[in-house]
Each structure stands twice: as C-alpha cells, then as structure tokens.
Design brief:
Blueprint lengths: L4 E5 L3 H13 L3 E5 L5 H8 L3 E5 L7 H8 L7 E5 L4 H9 L4 E4 L4 H16 L10 E4 L4 E4 L2 E4 L2 H12 L5 E2 H8 L10 H13 L7 E4 L3 E4 L7
Parallel strand pairs: 1-2, 1-3, 3-4, 4-5
Antiparallel strand pairs: 6-7, 7-8, 9-11, 10-11
Helix pairs in contact: 6-7
C-alpha cells in the first residue's frame, strides 16, 4: 500500500528537517515547503493526504492559506503555531483547520494528533443521498438515514435554530441568545466550542453540513426533513 503523502509548511529549517525525518520514519511520504506563497498551488497540483501548516510564514501566513485551501479542499490541516493567544487558535479552527499544536511540541504528540486527524477525516459512512437530516425532540437526537447521535440540550437548541432556516447565516450573538434558557452571560466564543463538539459528533455521518462564514458566523447547508 502506498504511504500517505504529507506536506509540511515550515520556515524554520531545523524544525522542518526534524519533521521531515521523523515523519518519514513513521511511514509517510513527506514534502516540505518553507514559505507560504506557493502552498495553495502546490496542493491543487499534488493533492496531498494532509498538510502540517505553520502559522507564521514568509510570503503568506498559515491562516490565509488555510482559508484558501478550504475553498476547494477538505484535506486534513494540522496547524503549528508559536502564537499561543486563544484568539489565534480559535481563528485557525474557525477557518477550517482540523487541529493545532503549540510550539514547542513533542514529535510523539504530533504523530498522535496527526493519526487522529487522518482517522477522523478518512472515516466514511455510506448514507443514502436522498436522506434528510432530522431532529428528534423526544430522543434528543440528530438523525440521517439509519445513523443517529445524541445531543445535549444546548446542542439541540443550537441545531434547531440553524436547521430552522437552512442557508441563513447566524452571528455568534444571535446563536448565543438561543442556547441558554436562563440567559446567563458567557463569551460568544462558547458557540465555537459547541460547534466543534457538534462537528465531532457529525463524523459518524461522514459529512458536516454546518458551514463557517468567516467574520460572520455559521449556517446550515443540509437538507432538512420534518422533526
């Protein structure tokens, strides 16, 4: 079986070489780029199985690259960053990254995170395309065909609001007002946490109908059936 092909985008030469050598030993075929301006064209041309993408790069930074890649590809993206501010990590995931590691990190942790991301993204579930997404208010479940996942009350209300108007973009403040019946005051980034949890649950379906709209919020793009 052919090894999985990885693209490492890292401008620090010692780190790039260490990643290249370690991942080769782990059994991957590895290519390395040291600047950001050529990454998108390279991915279009070569179609790697995953990208390890540094945030701070010459030419074009990793966040812009991630956003551009998500316009045409769902390949796994693992971001590497020395910028540990929470907003940067959240922004990276909002743009479509599958996971991140903060420098310095251990190579063993990198390997474990990479395997987990590849395993999640390569999971395939055969679902009849005629099936419609349904919320079951009695079971607190989301269903598609013969697959279902349990939901927390907050997740149920969040999906109920998104699915009620497919295609409409809702801002974080708009969604926040739907989540807690006691109207507690929490950060609007709480929405991001619930969206990430929902997306992990949606892996069982082999797809993700919740789309992030950069700088605005989220929308539901699935075909919705009666509750």
């Amino acid at each position: 079986m052919k090894p999985l092909r990885l693209l490492v985008v890292e401008d620090e030469l010692k780190i790039a070489q260490a990643l290249h050598d370690f991942l080769r030993v782990e059994g991957y075929a590895v290519e390395v780029l040291h600047e950001g301006s050529s990454v998108v064209d390279w991915v279009r041309r070569e179609s790697p199985d995953a990208v390890l993408l540094d945030v701070m790069l010459p030419g074009k930074d990793g966040l812009h690259i991630c956003r551009e890649l998500r316009e045409f590809s769902s390949l796994p993206i693992l971001m590497l960053t020395a910028r540990v501010e929470e907003v940067d990590r959240l922004l990276g995931l909002d743009l479509g990254a599958d996971d991140y590691l903060c420098k310095p990190f251990s190579l063993r942790e990198l390997a474990a995170r990479l395997r987990a991301v590849l395993r999640r993204c390569r999971t395939e579930t055969v679902v009849d395309p005629r099936c419609e997404w349904q919320l079951d208010a009695e079971r607190w479940e989301l269903r598609l065909g013969n697959q279902s996942v349990p939901l927390t009350p907050v997740e149920f209300r969040l999906l109920q609001h998104l699915m009620g108007k497919p295609g409409r973009v809702f801002s974080r403040p708009q969604l926040m007002r739907q989540l807690y019946e006691d109207h507690r005051v929490v950060s609007d980034r709480t929405v991001d946490s619930h969206i990430r949890n929902l997306r992990r649950k949606l892996e069982v379906f082999g797809g993700d109908p919740i789309q992030s709209v950069y700088g605005v919020g989220f929308r539901w793009e699935g075909t919705t059936g009666p509750a």
